[in-house]
Design a protein that fits this description.
The protein has ten helices and 13 strands. With 324 residues, it is of the alpha/beta class. The strands form four sheets. Strands 3-2-1-4-5-6-11 form a seven-stranded parallel sheet, with helices on both faces. It has a two-stranded parallel sheet with strand order 7-10. The chain has a two-stranded parallel ribbon with strand order 8-13. The longest helix is centred in the middle third of the chain and has 21 residues.
């Protein structure tokens, strides 16, 4: 548990970032968010407003709107920082295929700028959010951290590049950085383009779901609170410095089975069509988390049925508020 620290969260208004922000301010941490609040992901302002409404008057936080590729953004940070959680990125595997240069600039330049800022200001810990997409299609499963890296999208390449820079800054400049490879994170406040949120919205609206490929691909869906636990553990533990860890649930499910569960939760008849598999999509994500178990004491707690129900409970309310 991280308490009474000065924390910087990049991408702190996004899906995972907003959950981390909520957790950290509840523990009395003085927390700064930097986020560009771009159009790719609408609703960020409302998410942060909802979290802040729950805060006590003594809660210390600040929000900086800006672009991490511009070094001038760091001049707006008006206090010393103990820990940086670098979650900001232009997300989306499919988006990256059509916008490769944008994703390359946003994800790589912003990450190098964070490492430079951390180095100059002698930050005690940097936690970098990477992705399981760096592995590409697996040679064996479950995938441990030593599995060969074969990224098949610009997004995945950009995330792996951030890891390479983390390793460089750790080995050459002693930057205390840890990289975490997230596996298909889902839960309340998920991005609108993510499968589980998108599927629930379509089911609630009595619309057809499109599944890419044959639906037999396996996904290691990981509930957002388990990812937050992993982030905080990585931020706490000195043993994590200079290391890379998988953060997953280690219990993959076929997309077809996932959809069956979702229709059952909503209580509606299945309405699905299958379309061509998309570029950049891997066949299997399946995490080996033994290293995180041993060094971080990371153990995911939320299985898919519970996680889907929690997500639906949030999304049903969100849908009613926003239905046109």
């Amino acid at each position: 548990m991280i308490k009474n620290k000065k924390i910087l969260i990049t991408g702190g208004a996004g899906f995972i970032g907003s959950h981390l922000f909520e957790n950290l301010i509840q523990e009395g941490n003085n927390t700064i968010i930097i986020d560009n609040f771009n159009d790719y992901y609408p609703g960020k302002e409302e998410q942060i407003e909802e979290i802040i409404k729950k805060c006590s008057k003594s809660t210390e936080y600040s929000i900086i709107k800006g672009d991490l590729t511009q070094e001038s953004i760091f001049n707006k940070i008006d206090r010393d920082i103990d820990i940086i959680f670098h979650l900001a990125a232009q997300a989306g595997v499919r988006y990256s295929i059509e916008h490769a240069s944008e994703v390359t600039k946003n994800n790589i330049v912003s990450t190098v700028n964070i490492y430079e800022f951390a180095l100059k200001n002698e930050i005690k810990k940097v936690v970098y959010a990477s992705s399981s997409s760096v592995y590409g299609n697996p040679i064996y499963t479950p995938l441990d951290e030593e599995h060969p890296k074969n990224p098949i999208s610009p997004y995945a390449v950009s995330k792996l590049c951030g890891e390479f820079y983390a390793d460089l800054y750790f080995k050459e400049y002693n930057l205390p950085v840890t990289s975490l490879r997230f596996y298909t994170v889902y839960g309340p406040r998920g991005r609108p383009d993510m499968a589980i949120r998108k599927f629930f919205e379509l089911i609630l609206g009595d619309k057809e779901i499109s599944i890419y490929g044959d639906g037999e691909q396996l996904r290691d869906f990981t509930y957002v609170s388990d990812i937050i636990d992993g982030l905080i553990l990585a931020g706490e533990k000195k043993e994590a410095i200079g290391q890379v860890f998988n953060l997953g649930c280690s219990n993959p499910i076929k997309v077809n089975e996932l959809v069956e569960k979702m229709y059952k939760i909503v209580g509606k008849n299945k309405n699905v069509r299958y379309i061509e598999k998309q570029k950049g999509d891997v066949d299997i994500t399946y995490s080996n988390t033994k290293k995180a178990n041993k060094i971080l004491n990371y153990y995911p707690k939320i299985e898919i049925d519970e996680g889907l129900q929690k997500t639906f409970n949030w999304q049903r309310i969100y849908y009613k508020k926003n239905i046109v």
